[in-house]
Write a structure and sequence with these properties.
The protein is an alpha+beta fold and 134 residues long. The chain contains three helices and six strands. It has a domain of 77 residues. A six-stranded antiparallel sheet has the order 2-3-4-5-1-6, with helices on one face. Strand 3 and strand 4 form a beta hairpin. The chain is globular. The two termini are 22 Å apart.
Length: 134
């Protein structure tokens, strides 16, 4: 058996993918709008074709307990994993983490996020998770 050919023909499988987005200079006051985040999480789940296990949960960080760190944090559990977001209102900063064992288009998600929050700058990282799972 030619193991070299066999190895070369094997498909590369990973357990999942994680898209990390750091959005700077987002539309003023959007980082403080709790209703917008519920809507965003619902819309994003539908947009990428995932399945919610529960409704999104968004809460406000206590500015007295965490001075300078006030903002919102939200999460929606998916059958395929989860979407998490955090904001720092003072700096109009939003951090989004989409982790999924299902397939999704990172390019389309980036465009979706840009339309929603209109960041001046965005840092994007795309990770393969569980490279040795299969």
């Amino acid at each position: 058996m030619n193991t070299k050919r066999h190895t070369a023909s094997k498909k590369k499988h990973v357990f999942g993918h994680e898209l990390l987005l750091d959005c700077y200079g987002c539309t003023e006051n959007i980082c403080n709008d709790i209703n917008n985040y519920y809507e965003f999480l619902d819309d994003l789940v539908n947009f990428i074709g995932m399945d919610k296990q529960e409704e999104p949960n968004v809460f406000r960080t206590d500015r007295k307990r965490f001075p300078g760190k006030d903002g919102l944090s939200g999460w929606v559990p998916l059958a395929q994993s989860s979407i998490v977001l955090h904001t720092l209102s003072k700096h109009n900063f939003i951090s989004i983490d989409i982790y999924s064992c299902g397939k999704f288009s990172q390019k389309k998600v980036v465009e979706f996020v840009k339309k929603y929050f209109d960041p001046e700058k965005m840092e994007i990282q795309f990770l393969e998770r569980g490279k040795h799972y299969y």
